[in-house]
Amino acid sequence: MASDSDQLLQSTKRLAYSKESGSLQKLAVLLSDPAFMARLTKDDSYAPTVVFEVLESHPSPQTAQLCITLANLPYYNTENKWLMNYLLHALAAVKPVDEPAAVVFRRTNQEGFFAVNGPILAANGSPRAIAILESMIQSKQEDVPNRLSLIHWSLFEYRTQAGVAQMVQRLLKSGVAPEVEAALLETMFVSSPNSWWGKRTGVVPTPPAWPSVSMDALHVLLELSDIAKNSKTLSAHIQPDVQRASADIQSEIQQRKK
Question: What is the mean pLDDT of the chain?
Answer without folding.
Answer: 91
